[in-house]
Amino acid sequence: MTNAFYSMSSAVIVAVLMAGCIGCATGRVSVEDPSVRHQPSVVAPPSIGSDFSFIDAMRQYRENPTTEQKQKLAAHPAIGAIARHHQMTRGSSAANEELLEEMLARERDPKKTQRIVEYWRQRPGELRRLIRAAFSYLPQDTHLDGRVFFVTHHNDCIVAPPDAVVDLSLPFFTDPEAIGVTILHEVHHIGFIHHQKYDGPYLTEEPERLLKLVQYATQMEGMAVHAVYPIIKDRLTPELLSGRFTQDYRVYVDPAHANEICRAYSRIYRQVSQAKTLTDGEVETILTDMTNGKRLWYQFGAWIAWEIEKNQGVTRLAESIRQPRIFQATADKLMVRCQNNVAKGST
To answer: Cys-Cys with 153: which of 61, 64, 106, 258 at CB 3.0–4.6 Å?
Structure first.
């Protein structure tokens, strides 16, 4: 999600849980053959589909800005999904019309946006493969009756189960192919939240509740990062690994970096678990480091997921969504291991 912090002292901090594009790799990928390791025999149900109808309705309104066309846009289910996300993350409702006005006020590069839209509109097979790849890291009986709505001018990528919304006009989207990673990431979030809802409340200044938030988001974001790994693993060049978001995959190829991430995560984890109170400033620093500062829960969460898959298989990893103690047990072991490495003087 593009704006992670709306207020550092209220329920809306939960916005970081629904992180979308801000938490996704944007490296160039091919999705012809995801080659998921130990992949269980599961395919995405046909009820999960992609939907470009909002983009078409937006174009019609731009060409003919009538009241009737505007009302059709405001009633579109993509706007409904955005409204549900607003309620989930900010704890307050927003009218569809208000959300639409915000979108209409934004400027975007029309030529770039059109190029990206047409790229994906012409590739329904790749979209289906991306959805299947996401489902291969979900429990095998997962069935979701939702859609991935492609939009423009929203300024974000979000999840509002059973749907996701992907804004193809985001300024940092330049390579159409790379957006496939975001789509996969978002679809995995839908399935994760379907099986494991965060039950709050979201008063994260309280250490016990902040710890619960950290545990939940580490698994949700880490597993979504890891779900992308099979289609990106053969393209982890130094240039890609230095990217703003694709740096998450350094934990797969650089043991020293993985240990550094683990130790940084462990320090915050201990701080939160041992604290009696936390100031707003401490909470802000913690969440910044976990999200778009050091991206700790993305990277450490991905390393946890990788360890579970290597040692227990992808089916066990997928089941950890419904049994988060599996994921947390591996997280605890890795935190002990990286601290032991420090004590032994190794990286």
So the answer is: 106
